[in-house]
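Review form for a predicted model. The reviewer records the input and the model, then writes brief findings.
Reviewer: anonymous (R2)
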Amino acid sequence: MTDASTAAPNTNARNARRQRPDLAEQLQQLKAGASADTGAGAESPAEQAPRQQQDQRPPREKKPRPQQGRGEGQAQGQQPRQQQQARRPQAPAQQQPQRAPRKVNPVLERLFELYPQLFGARFVPLKLGVYEELIARHPEDFKAEDLKIAMGQHARSTRYLESVAAGLARHDLDGNALDPVAPEHVHHAILELHRRRMHRNPGEDLRPQLVARIAKAIEASGLDREAYAVLVRSRDANTNAVVDEALAELAQQAAKREALLRAFEASGRTEQEFAEMYGMKPGEVARTLQHARAERQAPAAAVAAVAEASESVEPAAPVEPTEPAAD
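Model under review:
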């Protein structure tokens, strides 16, 4: 009876292990495979050329993929719409529509042809009653209603108001300078120009300029400050406040001139020496002193005029007292 351990191995056993090839056998198999690749199955040089050219092509650059995060679906859905908006021509951000040029009134064009010195490049104040004079001179050229509208446009223009506010003299149709514009007309022209500038520059403080211009108009009017205030006083509280501010500024300037005149009279020096002593220009000192003397003489002249007017009036006869009636 033979031992189970020395018996021939059972090839049909389930746990039989497969014999591994020897290392030498593996080397032989590798050599045989390499020789087979270079044999009948290897590619010819003609077949290898296209592949080598394909291998020599530069590798394609990979475009970076957009990062996907929160709201990815919404961003992808908006891309076509954004591209369409980018293709559309966009108007400049601050471009404003151009205004159509105003049509010039044909009556004003005719006035310019007849009187270029009055209705041309330089505007001057016109005499009162010039409308009636134009109708009388040119009955065939102008209709009354059309001329009235054209003259209103001319008088309301900014350039014409500037000439009135400057206090220029009024002119007749022949170009002759007549009396200057009345102080109240100058005042109203200044206020209207200020209103238009405020409309064009709403954020700019133009009040100091208005006060200075009214103060200059008060001095040019030849009226004293109280008379000017009474002449231009209106129901507008803001306008009256501006006038009061201009009058106060003029009063301060007059007080400084009066103080300078008193200092000059007390110094006993000439105007040249006085100017050098205070470091002022001689011409400026001379003008200031002359202005102060004129202001000092103005009240005296007014008092003398009032006294002269009162003396020319005959005094009324005294009224004798009557006795009370008897009961």
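Findings: The CA atoms of residues 170 and 176 lie 8 Å apart.
Further findings: DSSP finds 14 helices and two strands in the chain.
Recommendation: see findings above.
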